[in-house]
Amino acid sequence: MLGLALHGAAAWAAVEAPTLVTTEPVAYGHRLGDVVERQLHLRLPPGARLEASSLPVPGTQGALELRELQHSGAADAPEQTLRLRYQVMRSPEQPAVIELPTLTLRVTLPAGGTRRETVLRAEAWPLVVSPLTPPQPPERTGLGPLQPDRPLPAPPIAPIRQQAQLGALLALLALSWLGWRHLGRPLWWRRQRPFARAWRALRSSHGSLDAQLRHLHRAIDEDAGHAVQTEDLAAWLASRPAFAPLAAELHALLEASAAHFFAPAAAADDTALAARLRTLLRQLAQAEARA
């Protein structure tokens, strides 16, 4: 038993101890979003192994986030390097100290027929993080906490004026078309109807009774679309109910017109016939406009 104990103690003494050396980032001058790198250099004796379960896992750790972990060398290599990249995730209101976390690495060593475990520690490392902006800006022109509104540049007026003019022109054209469509064209069309034109011609005419009577006959023929004889008058009036109240006077005046043209000796007084013609033609134009 004593021999075995002496042999084990000699074996333990022969095993070289593992070492850990760190290379730390600059401790000051950091801000939100900065990335810092920490390096761990391991030297292991023969037969030693770095336990992978003791390596840090990327993730957020308070004000820092471990973004990346690179492991150079095998777990039982005599020299290994760990590169850890941290990113600052918070911006304090005042300069503050945050710490890279303490790391604990487990290494197993041969011990006779078994293995023993030892721990390597990388202590926390401070980082001074400054705010993105000073809490109180300097009290001087242009840097105070409240600033007057900046004057807005005046928009160009020419395009706006052109658009307004174009809109006004389009509106005027639309109103003109609507006015013509609902007012002008109906009035124009009424003035172009046969009896309306005949009435205007009669009012401005100073010719003979023959010429005045022809205004009436032409209006009847134009309205019917063909020459209307005495025997066709009833059929034409049947198709023009607006003229029905004037049918009797129209028959009488056409008979008087026939007597004037074909039996002058039996014709009535021309002055009275001209007056009756003016009255009837005016009434026909009015009935035509209401139809």
What does this structure look like?
With 291 residues, the protein is α+β, with helices and mostly antiparallel strands. It is 40% helix and 23% strand. It has helices at 2-14, 157-191, 194-203, 209-224, 233-238, 247-262, 270-290; strands at residues 19-23, 35-43, 49-50, 59-61, 64-72, 79-88, 96-100, 103-111, 114-122, 125-129. The strands form three sheets. A five-stranded antiparallel sheet has the order 1-2-6-5-4, with no helix packed on it. A hairpin with a 2-residue loop joins strand 8 (103-111) and strand 9 (114-122). Helix 3 runs antiparallel to helix 4 (209-224), helix 3 (194-203) runs antiparallel to helix 7 (270-290) and helix 6 (247-262) runs antiparallel to helix 7. It is rod-shaped.
Instruction: Note the main sheet.
Output: 5 strands, antiparallel
The global form is rod-shaped
Q: Give a count of the beta strands, DSSP E runs of length 2 or more.
A: 10
Strand order of the largest sheet: 1-2-6-5-4
Helix content: 40-55%
